[in-house]
Structure formats: C-alpha cells, structure tokens
Amino acid sequence: MHDYPTPGALPVATVSDAMDRFGVADGIRPLWPGATLSGPAFTVWTRPGDNKGLHAAFETIRRGEVLVVNGGGDTSRALIGELVVQKARALRVGGIVLDGAARDVAELAALGVPVFARAVTPAGPWKNGPYRIGEPIAVGGVPAAPGDWVLGDDDGVAVVPRARIDEVVEGARGLIAGEAERRAANQRLVPRG
C-alpha cells in the first residue's frame, strides 16, 4: 500500500505537470475556498441525478478514502447535500469528488469535509439506482480506479494511477525545488533604466 501525501502537501497543478499535464479532472472545482483532499479513490458510478449508490458506498468505504463519483456530469440534480456529508464526516472519509452537482454549500463548508463538484443546484437527487461500486470510472474525463491517488485543492482535482504514485510524487517534488530556485532568481532581478 502506498503512503498517500497529506492533503495540501503537493499542489494539484504541480502534480499534473509531473504527469506531463495529464490527469486533471475537467470542470471539477472545490465548493469552498481552501478545501484540500488527498487519498485513495473509492469509486462509484451512478445514473445521473441518482445517489442510491453513494449511500451504498458508505457501507464499505474506509477512513481516509476519497469518494469519487461518476454522475455522468449531470448538473440538474444534487448528488449530495448536508446530510450525506455529515455521514462522510462521521466515517472520516477523506473527501468527495463528484462529476455531478451538490447542494447546501454553506453547510458543507461548515462541516469541513472537502467536496469538489461540477456544479451546485438546490434540486435533490433520485434514489432508485442503478449504480456500480469499486469499478474503474471516469471523473471529469479522467480515468479513476479504486486505490488511485486523488488530490484536490483550489485549482481543482487530479487523479494519479496507483502504479505511478511514487514516480509522480518524486517528479512533483523535483518541480517544486526547481520553482523555488526560479522564485529566488526572480527576487534578485534588478529593474533596468
């Protein structure tokens, strides 16, 4: 099992750079400023606008895992709200990433569980299914399989394949060191004239 970096330890943008700028979930944003997450993916694939699979996921998800949901990119119905996130908080879930919508944004921020989604809508979900748990999915156009590293910050969400975690972490740390050197050089610049 990999040691997943702590939330906020590595910027999403830098991790994406370390993957040749691949792996960023398109259109998935934090629902409140400063939200960060990092952990292994726990995947759910659900019918658009239906959250029955999310409730089922809470029966087996483990502490620190990130609930990653392919909701078909649907923005007409919120897959989660305050009550679902209260459950996630009680179970110490590492965060939630939705290729779909959420609601109750102020309450989610107050609960402190990092939630990333495509949109916000007040319309509630259906609870009929079908759904799949623990299968490879796509989120924001990026593949995500159980155990892949999912990380998020103010810039968005990235997914790192499990087999590449160590390589990508090392590459990101190298990029951060190089950026620090460039920042220091920028501070030494002297205006002309």
TrEMBL record:
E.C. code: 4.1.1.112, 4.1.3.17
Catalyzed chemical reaction(s): 4-hydroxy-4-methyl-2-oxoglutarate = 2 pyruvate; oxaloacetate + H(+) = pyruvate + CO2
Function field: Catalyzes the aldol cleavage of 4-hydroxy-4-methyl-2-oxoglutarate (HMG) into 2 molecules of pyruvate. Also contains a secondary oxaloacetate (OAA) decarboxylase activity due to the common pyruvate enolate transition state formed following C-C bond cleavage in the retro-aldol and decarboxylation reactions.
A molecular-function term among this protein's GO annotations: methyltransferase activity
Enzyme class: lyase
InterPro entries in alphabetical order: RraA/RraA-like, RraA/RraA-like_sf
PANTHER family: 4-HYDROXY-4-METHYL-2-OXOGLUTARATE ALDOLASE 3-RELATED
CDD domains, sorted: RraA_family
Example of a GO biological process term: methylation
Pfam families, alphabetized: RraA-like
Superkingdom as given in the UniProt entry: Bacteria
Cofactor(s) this protein cannot do without: a divalent metal cation
Keyword Transport: no
This protein's UniProt keywords: Methyltransferase, Transferase
Record family assignment: Belongs to the class II aldolase/RraA-like family.
Name of the protein described by the UniProt record: Putative 4-hydroxy-4-methyl-2-oxoglutarate aldolase
Quaternary structure annotation from Swiss-Prot or TrEMBL: Homotrimer.
